[in-house]
Specification:
252 residues; alpha/beta; SIR2/SIRT2 'Small Domain'; three-stranded antiparallel sheet; elongated
């Protein structure tokens, strides 16, 4: 893919960059999107019916089992070349903040050094009562595991419908968007709030906004550069064009 000369020149000289990734990036690893993931036993449920505090209060075991099933699906996929290209960009740009709406943890698995997970991480759990993060738990138990500290039920460490985003993560993401010189919106629909406001916050502060997506979104008209296609193909080409780097895979 050929990139405009002025775009390459901009990326080469920036010191502060931020990137927001959405479901499209994970989809390229073979991971189904949140609303497309229902198969087998779970096909009878709408995801919105399961991903809420109310659903967990009604039937904790049902919700725990659904997330345990989803965790297994995540374990079966690997980061793609787009994930690894973002790792390379973080190494090339002095101040690079990666923000993601995805809960699969693939950016961390790929090696990205600084990731703000706006919606949490499905591979982690926390206590529904005291909020303590729990690293190890027993998934073989017939009941929902409980917190060793307070005895409360454990739940997925993700943001459910009706819950606010974690304040610290949202504030850090907004700060990165407002202070960056270039903002990348990658594989996201641009409609899920409040993450969708980040690109506009960057734009309003004078940052160059770059969108990479398979189709146009509400952000496209505001973007300074729009590259249509898969992030797993475009991002490695971007790194190669800007820094003449060929090291975009998980083995090097």
């Amino acid at each position: 893919m050929e990139f405009p000369f002025d775009f390459i020149a901009i990326v080469r000289k920036v010191n502060r960059a931020a990137a927001l990734t959405g479901a499209g990036v994970s989809q390229e690893s073979g991971l189904r999107t949140f609303r497309d993931a229902q198969t087998g036993l779970w096909a009878q449920y709408k995801p919105e019916e399961l991903a809420s505090p109310e659903a967990f209060a009604r039937d904790p075991k049902l919700i725990w089992d659904w997330y345990a099933w989803r965790r297994e699906g995540v374990k079966a996929v690997r980061p793609n070349l787009g994930h690894y290209a973002l790792v390379e960009m973080a190494h090339r740009i002095p101040d690079f903040t990666l923000i993601t709406q995805n809960v699969d943890g693939l950016h961390r698995l790929a090696g990205s050094p600084q990731v703000i997970e706006l919606h949490g991480n499905i591979q982690r759990v926390r206590c529904a009562e005291c909020g303590a993060i729990v690293e190890d738990w027993d998934d073989d138990n017939a009941a929902v595991p409980r917190c060793a500290s307070c005895g409360g039920l454990l739940r997925p460490h993700v943001v459910w419908f009706g819950e606010p985003l974690p304040r610290a993560e949202l504030e850090s993401a907004m700060e990165a968007a407002r202070n960056c010189q270039i903002f990348f919106s990658i594989g996201t629909s641009g409609v899920v709030q409040p993450a969708a406001t980040l690109a506009y916050a960057a734009h309003n502060r004078g940052a160059v906004v770059v969108e990479i997506n398979t189709e146009q979104t509400p952000l496209t008209a505001k973007a300074d550069f729009f590259f249509q296609g898969k992030s797993g193909e475009i991002l490695p080409e971007l790194v190669k064009a800007v820094w003449n780097s060929e090291t975009i895979n998980g083995e090097q």
